[in-house]
Amino acid sequence: MPTMPPATLDPEDWDQLRQQGHRMLDDMLDYLQTLRERPVWQPAPASARAAFQQPLPVHGSALADAHSTFMRQILPYAVGNAHPGFFGWVHGGGTPVGMLAEMLAAGLNANVGGRDQIPVEVERQITRWMAQLFGFPDTAGGLFVTGTSTANFIALLVARVGKLGVAVRAEGLADNAAAGKLVAYTSAGAHGCIAQAMELAGFGSAALRKIPMNAQFQLDAALLEQAIAADLAQGLQPFFIAATVGSVDVGAIDDLPRLAAIARRHQLWLHVDGAYGALAMLSPELAPLLNGIELADSLAFDFHKWGQVPYDAGFILVRDGELQRQTFAAPAAYLRRDTRGMGAGSPWPCDFGPDLSRGFRALKTWFTLQVYGTEKLGQVIAETCALARYLEQRVAALAQLELLAPVALNIVCFRYRHHGADAEIDRFNAELVADLQESGVAAPSLTTIAGQVAIRAAIVNHRSGRADIDAMLAALLALAEARIAAAPAPSMTHLT
Ligand SMILES: *Cc1c(COP(=O)(O)O)cnc(C)c1O
């Protein structure tokens, strides 16, 4: 009697799968080894987009075919942050070690929401390491999340329970007289996810005061004190300060000891958004710049930026781990805790944040720390700052270019000097960055500094070196000259 093959998703022929798997691994190692031979980024052709406008497949096809589609239609058209010429936004470069660890984690397919398993211990190990690194107590709570946007949001939710009590979880904010008066503070240079966290947490972004920055692009502490005094005079209740370590535009670090003193005086929660900057702590040379971070009530940061861990690997560290647990933990019959069996080991990661099912982000982070060590990772971070200073010097020495902000860490904001009205100069620089991105040589991004469009080079990738900075500047100058030469007389210029 013929029988149907069992409906499993495992292969019939493991040897064939193994060979295919080895080819896939080799292709990705080749990719990382030969990154420099590729463009940083290239616009995707219509054929690549068309490959992903197909009907839902009813019948499967060979793994080798899907791999081939990946190699031809996906890999060449990613944003390119693994490439040493990538200086856009603040993206980490990833590492081969992180990639291999991701493969192991995917194979294990651990759900790290909880239960009695060593993957949870790996995450706890990272939490203890981070508590030590940042001078938090052993009782601090820690949790992997997607990124700092979520980590900032979690911090605000914990602060909300700290301020209003656990009852706010059930009662909400609508009828809470105190809630309507709560106000928070951050820098005008803070990341947009701080305002979003205020919206999501139910306070509304109108309850967030964006305090202007000083000449170093730090939150101006004197203006913060004035704002707090004004709010108190209005009968409002200040409760939360979100400081920044490594601001998204220019890499500025807020004056943490001063902000901590203000927070203490008024009994405010001090949160630090250290998305990329916090890991400067790994460099003995840079760590003093973060003085005061140990005074924070909570700290959000990403391993996927300066930590070079593959996406995604955000982290939230909360001084009062018990308060963090009280913010999220909820009894559920199907999540029953025990002292033996798989239900042991409580509290679980799911008690410290909104996610129940969670991947094993801790593994690629543990591998990265274990294999490279903090000394090497710290060196890599310090090196990106040295490269930023090199770029700063080169920009200062080139008559065509001008710096738009002081270089605090690893971000350099500058622009091409061009004739014409402000809007014209802005447009010229924006076009220049697009030219540069399309050239495939280098990829800085754009931002606005004091109302002026700036070319922003954020040096995050451990692979970047002086030659990559030089290549970016050479291409930038050549593209600018070509653009100027091609343009009609200034009065008729159309830089569309
Ligand atoms: C990148 C960044 C964020 C957002 O982090 P995600 O990991 O992208 O969610 C927040 N704040 C700052 C200062 C950042 O640089």
Output the keywords.
496 residues; 7-stranded mixed beta sheet; alpha/beta; 41% helix; 12 strands; 5-stranded mixed beta sheet; binds pyridoxal-5'-phosphate; Aspartate Aminotransferase, domain 2; 2 domains; Aspartate Aminotransferase, domain 1; 14 helices
Mind explaining what this structure looks like?
The protein has helices spanning 14-33, 46-50, 63-74, 96-108, 118-133, 148-164, 167-171, 192-200, 221-233, 256-266, 321-328, 361-397, 422-439, 466-486, and strands at 86-87, 141-145, 182-187, 208-211, 237-244, 269-273, 298-302, 314-318, 401-403, 411-416, 443-449, 452-458. With 496 residues, it is of the alpha/beta class. It folds into two domains: 40-47 and 61-94 and 377-487, Aspartate Aminotransferase, domain 1, CATH 3.90.1150; 111-359, 3-Layer(aba) Sandwich (Aspartate Aminotransferase, domain 2). It has a seven-stranded mixed sheet with strand order 2-8-7-6-5-3-4, sandwiched between helices. The longest helix has 37 residues, at 361-397. It is globular. The termini are far apart. The relative contact order is 0.13. Bound molecules: pyridoxal-5'-phosphate.
